[in-house]
Specification:
- α6 runs antiparallel to α12 and α9 packs antiparallel against α12.
- The radius of gyration is 21 Å and the shape is flat.
- About 35% of the residues are buried.
- By secondary structure, it is an all-alpha fold.
- The chain contains twelve helices and no strands.
Length: about 300
């Protein structure tokens, strides 16, 4: 809530936003202590398998799973937005523009799982996937503009799909191969928390960046319009207002929106970079990785 409301509904330094972050931090500490000392729960039934954070490989897998989750799901959310603003596509049509990404994502997942199962090594897939995802994310954040060709963006989507698919589901199988059998269920819980947490945090941060940068830029460009009207343009609920602007103002508005959209992919680049760095420290040894590594 603090991330989503900050800079949009309330200033970042307002008491309400500060209070949300403070309460969030306190609740996280309380939750960690409650789980660590099994207060009103038991070791077997607690939600967070906190004991796995004392082991190197589960921690590395947790971070990688969370960051790759942020890469994949933030891309799914923000790629269609580009087509909605720059080409005026409907929600359904812009979703269709995402098919190159989705197709390669769901194709790479079972392929990487089969290869991990066959060769027994998972580290190369994490390194390679993170690196492949980092390249198109960095390119999108730097060279895509309002009039970029759809074909070029499709090519970048393909690379993003391959990079994300290489390991986005693999952690659910890999974690079972690197912990003792009695911790297999706890390992699955840890990876689920990582993926959902990474997805939620990635989309929230990217959304806050997009909303704040686009809104501030449009407020300065369109001083005669109310803040609520400008906010509607950013949220995509007022295409009529955007289309009613003069051609010059409309072009400038789209340039501001695409510039803010770039910053979302800087967030994705950072997530891919973190996953790449973490992957370098994973163990390079053979293990019995199930073929389910890519088929979740």
């Amino acid at each position: 809530m603090g991330i989503n409301f900050g800079g949009t509904l309330h200033p970042w330094d307002s008491g309400k936003i500060i209070a949300l972050f403070v309460v969030s931090g306190v609740l996280r500490i309380v939750f960690a202590l409650q789980q660590a000392f099994n207060i009103v729960t038991s070791f077997e039934n607690r939600i967070l398998p906190i004991h796995l954070f004392t082991q190197k490989e589960p921690v590395l897998l947790f971070v990688s799973c969370a960051t790759i989750g942020a890469v994949v799901y933030t891309s799914v959310y923000y790629i269609p937005i580009y087509f909605q603003f720059t080409q005026g596509d409907s929600a359904l049509k812009s979703a269709g523009q995402l098919l190159p990404f989705i197709f390669l994502l769901i194709t790479t997942m079972p392929f990487s799982g089969a290869m991990m199962s066959h060769f027994g090594y998972y580290k190369p897939w994490y390194i390679g996937g993170s690196l492949i995802a980092l390249v198109p994310a960095a390119l999108v954040s730097s060279i895509i503009h309002v009039h970029s060709s759809a074909g070029f963006i499709y090519g970048l989507e393909v690379l993003l799909g391959v990079g994300g698919g290489a390991s986005t589901q693999a952690s659910f199988a890999v974690i079972q191969a690197v912990v003792i059998p009695s911790d297999a269920a706890s390992g699955l819980t840890l990876m689920l928390l990582a993926q959902v947490g990474g997805m939620a945090l990635g989309v929230s941060i990217a959304g806050a960046v997009f909303e704040n940068i686009a809104s501030n830029g449009l407020y300065a460009l369109l001083p005669d319009y109310s803040r609520s009207q400008v906010s509607q343009i950013v949220s995509g609920t007022s295409s009529t207002l955007l289309n009613s602007l003069s051609q010059n103002l409309r072009d400038d508005s789209l340039a501001i929106i695409v510039s803010a959209w770039h910053k979302c992919f800087i967030c994705i680049s950072v997530a891919a970079s973190v996953s790449l760095v973490v992957s370098l420290f994973m163990s390079h040894k053979r293990c019995n990785v199930s073929a389910a590594a890519g088929g979740e």
